[in-house]
Amino acid sequence: MKKYRLKDLDCPNCAAEIEKNLRKLGGVHAAELNFATSVLALDTDNPIEAIRRVIKQVEPDVEITEHSDAESDEETDFDIKRELVLVSIAVVLFFVGLIFKNRLHSTPYSIGEYLVFIPAYLLSGWTVLSNAGRNVFRGKVFDEHFLMTSATLGAVAIHELPEAVAVMLFYQIGEFVQGLSVSRSRSSIKSLLEIRPDSANLMIDGKLQKVKPEEVIVGDTVLVKPGERIPLDGKAIAGSSQVDTSALTGEPVPLPIEVGETVLAGMINKKGTLTVKVTKPLAESSITKILDLVENATGKKAETEKFITTFARSYTPVVVFGALAVALLPPLLLEASFKIWIYRALVLLVISCPCALVVSIPLGYFGGIGGASRRGILIKGSNFLDVLTQVKTVVFDKTGTLTKGVFRITQIAPQKGFSKAELLRLAAVVESQSNHPIALSIQEAYHGEITPV
């Protein structure tokens, strides 16, 4: 399947809807959209323009690009400064309007009140208003944007401007926090993906050529210099060294490698130069399988996520018709005030908005997976987070899991007339040619110059 990146995709619910609509499109054999990495894997006979139209129907601001082009893009989709400035201006206008509400209301036709509150309303709610308008034209009426727009425009109509602004403002603050959480979770997952090898030193007729790891085939020979990451799984056919396996196993102690021993992609060569004969292509390497688990973790949805998506489709129309009944039935049957009951109907629309449910539950799972990835814990999917609630006993590997495997000198106990300084110096000299964690801790504790004997 070909991969694309969706830029500016920040809504879990929208991602699920894009995936669903693409699967319904004729000529699409398979479609998987990973919200965690904003990567769309697609097997289709359709041109890219047809795919772009489907995406734009759900999220007009989302751009689709070739995944290979987007891989080097280090910029975050979420513009924190821009969003913070917009929210801050709206908050200032809102509180100015509240503080001077009586004075603003006493201006001719309450124009002062409109001049303060309407800009705040548009700054905080323009995205909601525009999405609601587009969705109505596409025949998609019953969603959270429609509820928010109906409630707030109704509040403006009955001259309850502070309420209209407050609803949009609190929603926008929630969206800002959501965007920030998504951005941080994506960053933590991307930082884990940085262990992927970038290049390989391929040996061709005795000469070295730097190529991408995916261009290397089984049987090729690659050279791994000290400090470089091993690009592919293989066997050492020349040289000896020690490799750092912590990215794969969590074990901090270097692993000695001699001729004939297996090395895995993602290990870091620490000392000597190794010549490695490739035994597996990049797609089948250990590091690729680990990274696939991380990248596709949010694709395995928990039952709660599936239920909320289905629930929201039926819930929203019920709320709309319920609010309509609240607005019309009491005034018609009980001769009550239309203004009071319309206001109550608008309150019902606002408090019943499903966006909190629809957004918070997928975002909660996504944040959990991202937070765990930042701490080096790989979770296969949201469904496994639910399974963890039933765990009674946990068995841990200690080194690199419960401990960091980083040693330090806590006490020096000299014997037979040696001073602490002299004993530490001698120990540092003895360990100066070793990079074992205990040896490194002794060298670090001795701050003087080490002269090997």
Please report the total strand number as a whole number: 13
Adjacency order of strands in the biggest sheet: 6-5-7-13-8-11
- Category from helices, strands and their pairing: alpha+beta
Q: Classify the beta-strand content into a percent band.
A: 5-15%
Q: What assembly state would you assign to the polypeptide chains in this entry?
A: single chain
Give the count of helical stretches: 16
Determine Rg (CA atoms, Å).
30 Å
Report the helical percentage. 40-55%
Distance between termini?
A: 60 Å
Largest sheet: 6 strands, antiparallel
Instruction: Write the H/E string, N to C.
Output: EHEEHEHHHHHHEEEEEHEEEEHHHHHHH
Q: How many structural units, i.e. domains? A: 4
Overall mean pLDDT stands at 80
| Stretches with pLDDT under 50, minimum 5 residues | 69-76
Shape descriptor reads elongated
If you had to describe this structure to a student in words, what would you say it looks like?
A hairpin with a 4-residue loop joins β2 and β3 (39-44). The chain is an alpha+beta fold. The strands form three sheets. It has a six-stranded antiparallel beta sheet with strand order 6-5-7-13-8-11, with no helix packed on it. α1 crosses α2 (48-58), α4 (80-99) runs antiparallel to α8 and α6 (111-137) crosses α8. It is elongated and about 100 Å long. The protein has 16 helices and 13 strands. It has helices spanning 12-24, 48-58, 67-70, 80-99, 101-105, 111-137, 144-157, 161-193, 246-249, 286-295, 303-334, 338-351, 355-374, 382-388, 420-430, 437-445; strands spanning 2-7, 28-34, 39-44, 63-66, 200-204, 207-211, 221-224, 234-238, 241-244, 255-257, 262-263, 268-269, 274-278. It holds the Pfam family E1-E2_ATPase. It is found in: Membrane. It is a multi-pass membrane protein.
